[in-house]
Amino acid sequence: MDKEILPEEVNKNIKNMDMAEELSSSYLSYAMSVIVARALPDVRDGLKPVQRRILYAMNEIGLTHSAKTRKSAAVVGEVLAKYHPHGDTAVYDTMTRMAQDFSMRYPTVHGQGNFGSIDGDSAAAMRYTEAKLSALAEEMLADIEKDTVDFIPNYDNTKKEPTVLPTKIPYLLLNGTLGIAVGMATSIPPHNLGEVVDALLYLIDNPDCVTEDLLKYIKGPDFPTGGIIYDKKAIAEAYSTGQGKVVTRAKAEIVEMKNGEEHIIVTEIPFLVNKAELIKRIAELVEEKTLEDIKDLRDESDKDGLRVVIELKKGVASKRVLAKLYKYTELEKAFYFNVVALTDNGLQPKILPLKNILEEFLAHRAIVVKRRTSFLLEKAKARAHILEGLKKALDHIDEIIKIIRASDSREEAVKNLIKKFDFTELQANAILEIKLQNLPKLERQKIEDELLEQKKLIAEYTSILKDSKKLWKIIEEELTTIKAKYNDPRRTEVVNQPADSIADEDLIPTGETFIALSKSGYIKRLPVNTFKTQKRGGKGVIGYEVKNEDDFLEKIVAADLSDYLLFFTDQGRVFQVRAFEIGEASRTSRGKLIQNFLELGSNENVTAILNYKPEDKGKNPYLIMVTKNGVVKKTAIKEYENMRRTGLLAIKLAKGDVLQWVGFSDGGSELVFGTHNGQAIRFGEKDARPMGRVCQGVSGIKLKKDDYVIGTIILNATTIKEGKAKIVVITEHGYGKVSDIKDYRKQKRSGSGIKTLKITPKNGSLISLMLWNGEEELLAMSKSGQTIRVPLSSLPILNRLTQGVRVMKLDEGDKISSVSLV
Length: 822
Prior knowledge:
Blueprint: H1 7-11, H2 19-39, H3 49-60, E1 70-71, H4 72-82, H5 88-99, E2 109-112, E3 130-133, H6 135-141, E4 151-153, E5 160-162, H7 171-175, E6 177-180, E7 185-188, H8 193-205, H9 211-214, E8 228-230, H10 232-241, E9 243-249, E10 251-256, E11 262-268, H11 275-287, E12 294-299, E13 308-312, H12 318-328, E14 332-338, E15 340-343, E16 348-351, H13 354-395, H14 397-406, H15 410-421, H16 425-432, H17 441-466, H18 468-486, E17 493-495, H19 504-507, E18 512-518, E19 522-527, E20 541-542, E21 553-560, E22 564-569, E23 573-578, E24 592-593, E25 606-612, H20 616-619, E26 622-627, E27 631-636, E28 648-649, E29 659-665, E30 670-675, E31 679-684, E32 698-699, E33 709-715, H21 717-722, E34 726-731, E35 735-740, E36 746-747, E37 754-755, E38 766-772, E39 777-782, E40 786-791, E41 805-806, E42 816-821
Parallel strand pairs: 8-17, 31-36
Antiparallel strand pairs: 1-3, 2-3, 4-5, 6-7, 8-9, 9-14, 10-11, 11-13, 12-13, 15-16, 18-19, 18-21, 19-24, 20-40, 22-23, 22-25, 23-28, 26-27, 26-29, 27-32, 30-31, 30-33, 31-37, 34-35, 34-38, 35-41, 39-40, 39-42
Helix pairs in contact: 3-4, 8-13, 8-18, 13-16, 13-17, 13-18, 14-15, 15-16, 17-18
């Protein structure tokens, strides 16, 4: 029967502990384990534990750079079995990266087979690939057998593994590293070997130097994929503090082809960018019409190097396209320095400036060289000690032979030799190993020569240990030898000034376009060449596919793609959108609902669209607003500077009134109103004093009961003085005419005005009043979707009281819906 466990015995094994303290302590232990044993590199050899174990295991099984490669599975198995008790995937993935020339500036593993690609392709399974150490990796393991570093028991206490490698190269800087631990991360870029060695040599001779001195040698990161890095000031800051950001860009060239087209050729991309994903992203941007000027995209990379060709459409601004590529893709990418490594013999994580990394490496090399020299000194002393015994034995060889022959065993012979000639046990055993063939005088000379050589070595090693200058001289010579063997040209170009800042404004396309808005609220953008110039009196072409009789293009505005568009509504509110943000559509398509761009109310409709550039505000600092009922309001543009997505109140409207027309003014112009029934009034802008944004305005024209304002013209002083500009009126039945400005005499505001057009059933009511400066063409669209573009020079100049001439031939029942000047 089992012994009964009493409650008091159970209570002896229970400890009262604070939960928060226990969780904190346990989590800290876990965090430090991840930091020290997995994620962060040691500043001395620049390696994480798994990397160190891979290199050491490959060296132990003889996979040097001159040996034949072996299956990667054999290496992974060796590492797992003896040193790294974790998953095989972690080991193989690490070894794969150490063999990739696009991930490592100086690969430490020479791989044979598929070890992945810059397109993100995975390596083949470990049973298919083979590997061995690279020549440079052997420099990291050199002298490891000479007691240069400490060894510790492996995980099952059956083997010993090094705590750090006695590396001759500053691996941490040469290949850099990326790692995420618990509560911290490291991000160190790779560098050029020759530059780092030069900086080390300078630091040895000038230990009090500062970062700026070292940067005369280390120009900046040197990525395996090349590219360009910018801004030496940012680079210097990152190296001085151990933290910072450096902008990297692909190396791209704009090449003009024989047919006049231009191609952007990309031959180098930023570090850690997946080429396949980069190309996919560019294609997506073309599909989204963010990059509309790209005609074709293809990858021509081969064994000779990377090459991505981006074909551009003819006549586009290639530099602007390249700027967009930098802005929206990983052709430009920031590399963030966060130089965290383990110091204090691999126990303490620290953020390290450049000088500290170099100092830590040199301190490690000094220890390695000292330990190696001490090891060699002891070995030389031991050999000299044996040689001295052998020399003495040759002087008494006959007697020694007698003693050995008289001894009953080896042990007795050793004792007798020690007793007779005062040999040490080591010397006595060495004497017993002498072969008879080594007794001639020639062998005696060899022993004496070797003894002399060993004494010289002892003196040399002793002097190195006593004289630090000699020790540092050795370190300098080894570094110089490393540079001579492995140095190669810098791959990444360093540009002194910051990268050209690519503002959103720089990426906005330019060029003329049409913004078209339908009665039912659909908006679209059309290329300026959508409508070709025709003779007046024709029917034009289909410019809009009408879905029902109430759906027609109500407004067409000619603008530049970079323009700002102000949308004014029948409720007196104003919204702002950039012209390029409106999606381009075909001539016959409806476009998108305007609610996709403006937060309109349920019964709110756009009644006026005004386009402008920011520089226009200085020349014309006022907005003139005119309502359907003839009210005019003048307000400073600065009242509308803080435009919100939800819009701003632009004018306070009287009940039943609608905002009909908006334009810019310089403050001293004249206004001409046109009405539905053909009336017009011209008065000075100064008659309408400036008002606040939420004011209602003053009367501009006195209207008859069934009349309303359809448009307004602003005449500035220059226009009036030159007399070149004309007034154009268009009627709903497709008639129009051009009149001289002087035909419209100036009056006081709020009058009834004068006739601007003779209205008849033939020509119909007035729908548009515009100012023609002699260069623009007329673009008119009917409610059925017919569109025509005609030169205004084809219209005769007629007096105010005429009915005009036919501009556009309309089908029965059709009417002009919108008119614009191009």
